[in-house]
Amino acid sequence: MEHRHPFVPYSPERYEPAEMVRRGEEFYRFSDRRRSVRSFSAEPVPYRCIELAVRTAGTAPSGAHQQPWTFVAIGDQETKRRVRAAAEREERQNYEGGRLPPEWRAALAPLETTSDKGYLEVAPWLVVCFAEKYAVRPGHGRIRHYYVNESVGIACGLFIAALHAMGLSTLTHTPNPMAFLSEICERPAGERPYILFPVGYAAGDAEVPDLVRKPLEATLIRMPGNLGL
Ligand code: IYR
User: Fold this and answer.
1) Is the CB of 176 inside a 6 Å radius of any atom of ligand 1?
2) Are 214 and 48 in contact (CB under 8 A)?
3) For the chain, does the N or the C end have fewer beta carbons within 10 angstroms?
4) Which atom of ligand 1 is nearest to the CA of 114?
5) Closest by alpha carbon to 202, among 169, 227, 172?
6) Peptide bond into 177 cis (omega under 30)
7) Does domain 37-203 bear CATH number 3.40.109.10?
8) What start-end ranges are recorded for coiled-coil regions in this protein (predicted)?
9) H-state helical runs in 33-125
10) Dihedral sign computed on CA atoms, order 111, 114, 118, 120
11) Which atom of ligand 1 is nearest to the CA of 174?
C-alpha cells in the first residue's frame, strides 16, 4: 500500500483465567468437530455465506499487509462441470498414468482418494483461492509481495473455520497441476491457484475416514525454564 496508516487504539477483550480456558476449550471442541468432506449435498447454500467466509478469510494477517489473496466463487453448473473435467484430466494422469510417485500414492492410500472428482459438480459452490505473487501497477511494473504462502495459508484456514461455524463443509482440494483454474477463472498472471474449495452441506450419508489427530504431546513441546502460570 502506498499511503501510510494512522495508528488507532486497540484493546482486545480480557477475561479471567478460568473464562479464558473455558472459551479456549469451547473453541477447540468446536474446531475438533470439523472434518474434510468429499461427499456433498446439492442443496443450495446462500451466497451470503460465501461472502461471510471470504470476509473472515480477509481478516488474516499478511506480509506487509499486502493481502495477497483473491477468492473466486463459482456457482454456475456449466463452469463447475468444466472445472471437474479439467481436474479429473489431471488426476487421471496422477492416479492411473503413474504421475504420482509410489511414496506419495502410499501416503494417500488410507484416504482412498481417486481421480473421480464428482463432488466438484455436486457441491453448490466451488471457491478458488488465488495467491497474488505480485501486483501490477500500470506505470510501476510489478510490485513484489512478501510471505505470500504464509499469508494465503492463514487466510484459507480462517475461511475453513468460518464455513465450519456456519455448518458448512469443504475440502482443501489441490488438483495437481491446477493452472487450468487461472484460465477458467480468468485471473491475471500474478495470481496462482492456491486451493480449490468445494463448499456445501455434507451429504446426509457422508462418511469420513476415522482419522486420529496427533496428540498434544507430539504437537506442543514446552521448553524448560520458561515462565508460565
Ligand atoms: N491432488 C490429488 C492427490 C491428493 C494429494 C494429497 I497430499 C491429498 O491429501 C489428497 C489428494 C487429489 O486431489 O486426489
Assistant:
1) yes
2) no
3) C
4) 14
5) 169
6) yes
7) yes
8) none
9) 47-57, 77-95, 102-108, 119-122
10) positive
11) 1
Average pLDDT by consecutive 10-residue portion of the chain (229 residues)? 81 98 98 98 98 99 98 98 97 92 92 94 98 93 96 99 98 94 97 98 97 97 82
Residue nearest atom 7 in ligand 1 by C-alpha distance: 108
| Atom nearest to 176 CA in ligand 1 | 1
In this predicted complex, what is the ipTM?
A: 0.89
Residue 92 Cβ inside 6 Å of ligand 1? The answer reads no
Whose CA is closest to atom 8 on ligand 1? 108
CA of 176 to the centre of ligand 1 (A): 8
Strand pairing class (134-137; 125-132): unpaired
Closest CA to 127 of 186, 39, 206, 53: 53
**For the residues of 138-202, what is the DSSP string, one character each?**
TTTEEEE-SSHHHHHHHHHHHHHHHHHHTT-EE--B--SS-THHHHHHT--TTEEEEEEEEEEPB
Residue type, 165: A
How many angstroms does the Cα of residue 119 sit away from the middle of ligand 1? 14
